[in-house]
Amino acid sequence: MKISALSMNNTALDAGITSFQFYEQGNGTKVPIVPMSDFGNYKFQLLLDGTVAPYRAPYVFQTSSLVFKQKSKFAEWWYPYLRKDIDFVELDEKAENIEEKIEWALENDEIAEWIAQNGFELTKELLKPENVYCHYLQAFEQYSELMDYEPIVSDEFQLVNKDPEVTVHNCNCELEKNLRDEL
Fold it and tell me: Coiled-coil annotation: which residues (predicted)?
């Protein structure tokens, strides 16, 4: 809500609250929802913790806009690959430095565009379907190693036979080598 209030006095910041489900309306501005298809019309994108949809993070990077990402204890599996000041501009944990960072980006347009392009290219590669599937396959394999019981297979389950014509993707993810453990 603080960022929404800031945008009332800052022409470089267009931020508002689309719903006050959990809070009473305070200093923030209630605005209509911007469709994700319109995100690319903006020079900057904010990626903040809160009650927003985390599924939009990949899309935010794919707009080619400069992403301001809040420092956070929460992470998607691919966040460790993101490099501060190379793929995104980091905001502090409470996003209190947002005005300073936006001003920097406006004064350093070429560097800001370079960072935005890097974030776009990196996430385009990281989030290819085969890399996403590989990550989940490895996560399920690690999870299954932690199980200390044999799963119960009910008679009501329906076996899905694999089509022999379909080749199995042999997951050999180079991406996962330097990631921290998530499980």
Answer: none
Torsion angle of the four alpha carbons 124, 33, 90, 50, in this order, in degrees rounded to the nearest 10: -110
Domain borders along the chain are 2-126, 129-178
Give 135: exposed, middle or buried? Use CB within 10 Å, 0-12, 13-18, 19+.
buried
- Interaxial angle between packed helices 98-107 and 109-126, expressed in degrees from 0 to 180 and rounded to the nearest 10: 110
- Using DSSP, state whether 165 is helix, strand or coil: coil
Q: What's the confidence (pLDDT) of residue 37?
A: 81
Gap between the Cα atoms of 70 and 73, Å rounded: 10
As a whole number of Å, the CA-based R_g of the chain is 21
